[in-house]
Specification:
The structure holds 2 protein chains of 2 kinds. Chain A folds into 2 domains: 255 residues, no CATH class; 105 residues, abc type-2 transporter like fold. Chain A is 67% helix and 5% strand. Chain A has 17 helices and 4 strands. The mean pLDDT of chain A is 84. Chain B is of the alpha/beta class. Chain B has 2 domains: 139 residues, Rossmann fold; 67 residues, no CATH class. Chain B contains 9 helices and 10 strands. In chain B, strands 6-7-8-3-9-10 form a 6-stranded mixed sheet, with helices on both faces. Chain B is globular. Chains A and B meet through α1 and α9 of A and α2, β6, α3 and α5 of B.
Chain lengths: 391, 244
Amino acid sequence: MKPTLTVWLKEVRENLRDKRTVFSALIYGPLLGPVMFVVIMNAIVGHQMKKAEGPLKVPVIGAEHAPNLVGALKQWGLVPLPPVADPDKAVRDRDADVVMRIPAGYAKAWSKGEPAQVEVIFDASQQNSGTPTKRLERMLKRYSSEQGTLRLLARGLSPSIAAPLVVSERDQSTPQSRAGMALSFLPYFFVIAVYIGGMYLAIDLTAGERERQSLEPLFANPVARWRILAGKLGAICSFSLASLVLTAVGFSVAGHLMPAEKLGMVFDLGPGFIIDAILLELPLIAFFAVLETLVAAFAKSYREAQTYLGLLMIIPIIPSMMMGFLPVKPAHWMYAVPLLGQQIGISDLLRGNPVSAGDIGIALVCGFALAFVIGVGTAFVYRSERLAISA
Amino acid sequence: MIEVKDLHKAFGKVKAVDGVTFTARDGEITGLLGPNGAGKTTTLRMLYTLMKPASGKVLVDGIDAAVDPIAVRRRLGVLPDARGLYKRLTARENIEYFARLHGIETQTMHQRREKLVDALEMRDILDRRTEGFSQGQRVKTAIARALVHDPKNVILDEPTNGLDVMATRGLRTFMRNLKAEGRCVLFSSHIMQEVAMLCDRIVVIAAGRVVADESPDALRAQTGEANLEDAFVKLIGSEEGLAA
């Protein structure tokens, strides 16, 4: 055990002196997610709030044809802007989110009691147009239904005749489950933190040592190669664990910096969440450490290993993408699949559903078992003559 | 003592080592002399168990390298062709890392390190990071690192390669001291004068085979050349003639 510990401590010490490794493993990797989370979410929320609650500024063409309508809309928050010459172009060019046009025939149709037309011009492919358009349509519907009710009453009829169906929506989402949806990208950042946290060490400790020709003198020591490998894996795991913990703490802090109430959400990223999430991710630390070392052992140089491991980064992305494009119902067996189990488990934690000890246990056992199998393969590659020869 | 018996090793079709046999005795300096590409480094790599011979035997103090490679490595101090220092560690940390891998107690480690630092005259660089070391400073550090466990047998692969005159002279004195301490010193070189000056025994290797295994005087007598360089050329030349 002692030589393993010696290798472990030396690798940690040596790599703490490497600015590139420290930056990527302990700063860039773990903090990228939380910082992006806070900045982007705040920006989006601020923007949407402004659109949803601020005065709704809409160019109105032909306002003179329907002064009553425009007056009502004004009361509900519409600020009519002067008409634009070419509404289609204005919307396409994003000079306006939405434009309302009241045709000349409006007043005539209205006084006859026929359906009077109002045009709402927008471009659904523009992200900005969604909320204002919906607000405008909601106002118009309200006006229409109020006027309809008045007309029915004027004819002595009950307004309920025109409303045979009443839809009552009962949303079962909770503030926390809505937060879980908003944070659906978060499991991905956890996995990436683990992957990047260990990556530069994995490269440096195998391909890098080989390139610097220090593997040959190292292997001349009376220590079995698997012990040396174990020490190196220990160092890699230490760095990716540190990266993971920093990420978890980073998101926990970020949760407090979010305009959660404005969103009707609750971000519960407290210590309970952190501990469960780290526990779930533990097997991935070992899994990526052996996988990255195995791949790096096939590379002749630092750069080559960097290329391979860059390409390999697609692996941790797969479950997140899968869940994004084809949402599936989580099942217990999924915890047995490394990466998928972590994705589902952390999503559940975010939604406020506790993950059972059994499921965590399955994820731990299966993850570590897979890591062990790959580890044996890596030890086998480490024994090869080829590995030590640098030139 | 290092005994090598009929070693063979091929890389693909190239027979790098093709039946090498020799013995390096305690209290002697044995030189492995040969032109570049003769198979010196490959032979040494099989001695310190980095490579497995296709056939043949390596015995270090009577221990078979194929049976107990770790015990063999424990008895060897090795300066490989690849010096490979850890550049983000200081010379001291480099030395202490290998001492710990040998499982040496802290106090013993400090004593041995101090002794080597004095013998190699490297006190001034001890606490500098090895990045930016000169070739000579690198070799000194690598040798101290290789000998910190006080091995009975010392293998040095081209130790004077790239060193200036002063550093080379210092290294020669150091090697003579190792011999005086009763150690078995085996080193490879392609420089005849150096081998002639230092060695009690010269093993000449060409094209993966031993073409002579004699004392310097006997070598001169065998080839009939008074000058060792001529003797060397004659040996290599005749070997190439045989191969053709």
